[in-house]
UniProtKB/TrEMBL annotation:
Any one GO MF annotation of this record: phosphoric diester hydrolase activity
Name of the protein this chain belongs to: Sphingomyelin phosphodiesterase C-terminal domain-containing protein
Pfam families: ASMase_C (PF19272)
Transmembrane segments: 124-142
Length: 146
């Protein structure tokens, strides 16, 4: 069982410029950051439901998730996550089976294609998100098997 999760980061640019010893810094603590008392399938499902991909820039919880997920990569206002991007993250969070994930993405692409807006392939950050959630899921499964 996972009781909590703390995300750390290392600012390589700062380390390279200052020639100091690397210092890992806490980015966030999962339960505190998202305001939940325990990490269970039910609380994670509820959290994901609150991050619906509709109007991601008007959803403070999704904005908070996106900032944490990108680990200080996209901190500027020019790096917002549009509806296509948000839907990709939502699919990655809620679909652990690859075929379901792929169907989820296709549903978003189909809906967005009808809006006459052209979107490129999912960003590299989405690939990292998928890898992260898969690793998280595998860890939970292995933990429960032992």
């Amino acid at each position: 069982m996972v009781f909590d999760y703390t995300q750390y980061y290392l600012d390589l640019s700062l380390v390279n410029l200052s020639k100091r010893e690397p210092e890992w810094v806490i980015e966030y603590n999962f339960s505190s950051y998202y305001g939940i008392n325990d990490i269970t399938p039910i609380t994670l499902h509820s959290l994901a439901d609150k991050m619906t991909p509709n109007a991601p820039n008007n959803n403070p919880l999704f904005t908070r998730y996106f900032r944490a997920n990108s680990v200080r990569t996209f901190n500027g206002p020019q790096n917002v996550c549009d509806s296509y991007c948000a839907h990709g993250h939502f699919c990655a969070i809620t679909r652990l089976d690859f075929l379901e994930f792929e169907q989820c993405l296709k549903a978003a692409a189909s809906a967005l294609a009808s809006s006459a807006i052209s979107y490129a392939r999912p960003p590299f950050q989405l690939v990292l998100t998928i890898i992260g959630w898969i690793g998280f899921a595998v860890g939970l499964i292995l933990e429960n098997l032992t």
